[in-house]
Amino acid sequence: MIQIATSPATTTLTITGDLDLAERDQFPEITARVVGLRRQLLVLDMCGVTFMDSTGAAFLISLADAGRRRGGATVLRGCDERDLFVLEVCGALDLFRIDTDHACARDDASA
């Protein structure tokens, strides 16, 4: 599931569950909505992501690229090492700022 929240300068996507081929049908609509909001900063909250494949990575890359073309920035928050590796293998890690200060609020009951 992907939820969109906005403030005057920021769009935040909170992503939970798998970000993969099975979810690709929703990516074009979400991309259009985010691009249409025209905020300078896009925050991708990945704390709830359980799995990301190259299709999910391509979705994140397209969002970051669209923001960069408008002079904006994209921040990855709560992204684990596995997901960072996927983006690195895709050659796209430099499109993102990594929020290294964020600590995800993990639900210990589900861990």
Automatic annotation (TrEMBL):
* SUPFAM superfamilies named among the record's database cross-references: SpoIIaa-like
Q: Which CDD domains match?
A: STAS_anti-anti-sigma_factors
* Annotated STAS domain residues: 1-111
**Identification of the protein by name:** STAS domain-containing protein
Q: Which organism is it from?
A: Flavimobilis rhizosphaerae
